[in-house]
Design goal:
The complex is a heterodimer of chains A (433) and B (111). With 433 residues, chain A is of the alpha/beta class. Helix content of chain A is 39%, strand content 21%. The chains are: A alpha/beta (433), B alpha+beta (111).
Chain lengths: 433, 111
Amino acid sequence: MITAANISLAYGKRIIFKDVNIKFTPGNCYGLIGANGAGKSTFLKIMAGKLEPDNGNISKGPRERIAMLNQDQFAFDDYTVFNTVIMGHKKLYKIMAEREILYAKTDFNEEDGIRSGELEAEFGEMNGYEAESEAAVLLNGLGVPEDMRQKKMRELDGSDKVRVLLAQALFGNPDILLLDEPTNHLDLKTINWLEYFLSRFQNTVIIVSHDRHFLNQVCTHMADIDYGKIQVYVGNYDFWYQASSLRFHQKETESKKAKAKAEELKEFIRRFSSNASKAKQATSRKKLLEKLTIDEMPVSSRKYPYIVFKPERPCGDIILEINGLSKEIDGITMFKDLSLTVNKGDKIAFVGPNSLARTTLFQILTGELKADQGSFRWGITISHAYFPKENNAYFNDNELDLVGWLRQYASPKEHESFIRGFLGKMLFPAKRQ
Amino acid sequence: MKKTAVLSGGERVRCMLSRMMLSGANALLLDEPTNHLDLESITSLNNALTAFPEVILFASHDHQIVSTVANRIIEITPDGITDVMMDFDTYLAMKDESSSKTDNYIASQAA
């Protein structure tokens, strides 16, 4: 169990947390959610003791161990993969290292014998004898191949380093596990393994993630950071999302009703305050109006952009036909003799490990690349829009402001307000457009 | 006023989505549209893609978007394509089953 009591933190005038009191209990997995900049990662750092709050304290059981996913990919460059994993349990690693030095001594004396007895006892208590096999299980599950395990961390690429650091955090059955974006750079198979691992994990887990499927699979609770407070809800992300939109609409209705009532009263006062016979009634209404507090909607720090794609006209019968398309990039086959017909109403997800093949296909279909062989044809009723993975090429003209940038893609007859409308929907405030 | 040169990754993605919104297109192609986006924007995008009445071709590593938007799954492999009319979770279950069948087959051959 880990408890945060009266945690407050501010950066200058900006309040991040104000008197946060929260208790995280074993057997539960908490998804920490909140708007960008609400302080999710900051809170994890405070819990891990890596950051001092202005006020308040974090307490846990005396023998409880916290493990946090390390974000620094270069921190263990000089260590082997295997040792990096074991270092997740610092005390165990220290004993392991001392044991090794002791047993390598040529002049092993009586004192060393006593020390070795102590070390073995501690080592056993920490499940040291199973450390090697446990590390191997974790690395297997996370897809780090066996021949990589005696390599130095510096020899690994970014995606493999992430897997090793994750194994490090999970190693040694920590009492409290803090994970900041653990699914980043992981493939679907590895994410599934992690979901399975966490669903069987008995201790306390706190996770920050933008992967809703992952949050839904593993979380028992949502801890929502908003207005500088943290509120805990039972259930996974989808449940929280449904419940919070319902609450929002209820409050909105209540607030609308209160406003309508206030308007009605104001109107009454305006009409009758000059009329002597009604003056008394108007005065009492005035008092009523003063008492009526309009429950203003709290200003949430969380904002949802308004995204809606409206086709100007429906698709005709012929959408897209691809015939025998082939493409190689740098001598590697992306696809060969690819044929397919896209039908009305199709929403096609291109999946699988080869993301470059998908990107290449999209680039050919939108005219950014040429195929080596084969052909394709868009139907005459089709107008397509492309969201590329890499968008640098769209932002080469440094002098444009946002309205100017978006205007390039609008019909010249469109008014500026039309363009600003779309930027507003994507939460760009008017003065920054 | 903000010049586009100083936009962050997330802001650029939001610009690109504005651009797609005003296009009025009836066929959308999206390649990893959730990169750099926060949970709220991903949720809004997911809702927009689910509600879109016409054609979408997309690739995404966001499991929930793929499983709630797609009604057809295509996997490009070096030897051709797997092309099935089903949602993503059904596809994963099918793949899982066929791979464990293959494993069983290999095991029975070895025995």
